Amino acid sequence: MRRIYTLCFCAMLVCFGCQWQMAPHDSEAADRRIEVSRFDRIESLYLTTGDFSAMQQMNTSYPAQTRMLIEDVLKLGHVNDPDINTKFLTYFQDSTLQQLIDETQRQYANMDDLNEQLNNAFDQLKQALPELPTPHIYAQISSFDQSIVVGDSTLGISLDKYLGANYPLYKKFGYTDRQLRTMTRAFIVPDCLSFYLLSCYPLAPDSVEQRETRMLHMGRIQWVVNTVLHQQVFNNEFVEKAAAYMKQHPKTSTEDLLTLACS
Questions:
Q1: DSSP alpha helix (H) spans, 50-142
Q2: Axis-axis angle for helices 211-229, 112-128 (nearest 10)
Q3: Tally of CB atoms within 10 A around 79
Q4: Do residues 37 and 113 make contact, with C-beta atoms less than 8 angstroms apart?
Q5: Between vectors from CA 91 to CA 3 and to CA 155, what angle results, nearest 5°?
Q6: Residues in contact with 227: Cβ distance below 8 Å, sequence separation at least 6, in sequence order
Q7: What's the pTM?
């Protein structure tokens, strides 16, 4: 099951699927330390130089990530199509996208801070939800298409969606001030937790179309993220309702809170 999520608050609630499934080689994932895999570096090498060996490395070292990027995010065709490598390379030859690649690699040359933050965040999350597996987290460049992508045991960060509220290309493409506020390095970890939890605790299919239920569920997820990170990242009426509920029901566990609207 592959799921794609964007930064839009409401859009976070329209993609649902089965419970998170761990790949066989991830059976001990809960005990490993997180280090974001730099899929974006190999991708950048291919897209800026056309080095075919880089494309081969993408397919051999990151087959699931490459498939999701090409098929589900960019929607360029099937990963096994004879001309897919050329289509992928050609797509990014636009000068704007080349500039995007360069800026992404410049801003995220070092991600040690994010590795540390992700480890701390998932350690805290595991205390609240000990049965949750830890996903394999990687970075990619997606051409403004998505912010976070969630697959079976994987979580991808599209770095091009976190270049800062003042990044000039964002305004050129019409992002609103509300969207720009979240398109910063500081929102990567909160978004990872939010989309991860949303994939693990989806609403029941018959609840997806009910706006109030959707917003309440997202508010509960965001309250959990705030609690895990010990900061008020998300602040809206639905987060406040979740906080009020937990205050009124102090014996309610995090698991119980997140499953209130999932059945």
A1: 52-61, 63-67, 84-91, 95-107, 112-128
A2: 110
A3: 17
A4: no
A5: 25
A6: 128, 254
A7: 0.87
Q: Sign (positive/negative) of CA torsion 28, 150, 121, 198?
A: negative
State what percent of residues in the chain have pLDDT above 70: 85
Tokens found for residue 142: 């997606």
Question: Mean pLDDT for each consecutive 10-residue tract of the chain (263 residues)?
Answer: 49 37 39 88 97 96 96 95 96 94 98 98 96 96 90 94 95 90 97 96 76 92 97 96 96 94 58
- Using the Cα atoms of residue 142, residue 144, residue 148 and residue 151 in order, give the sign of their dihedral: negative
Cβ neighbour number for residue 217 with a 10 Å cutoff: 26
The residues, ordered by sequence, that sit 6+ positions from 193 with a Cβ below 8 Å of its Cβ are 121, 122, 125, 224, 225, 228, 229
End-to-end CA distance of the chain: 20
- CA-CA-CA-CA dihedral for 53, 59, 61, 66, to nearest 10: 120
Query: In whole angstroms, what is the distance from residue 239 CA to residue 138 CA?
Result: 28
206, burial (CB in 10 Å: exposed 0-12, middle 13-18, buried 19+) = exposed
For the chain, the residue count is: 263
Taking a C-beta distance cutoff of 8 angstroms, is the pair 147, 161 a contact? yes
E strands, the chain, where? 3-5, 136-140, 148-151, 154-158
16: exposed, middle or buried (Cβ count in 10 Å: 0-12, 13-18, 19+): middle
- What's the burial of 150, exposed, middle or buried (CB within 10 Å: 0-12/13-18/19+)? buried
Q: Are strands 148-151 and 3-5 parallel, antiparallel or unpaired?
A: antiparallel
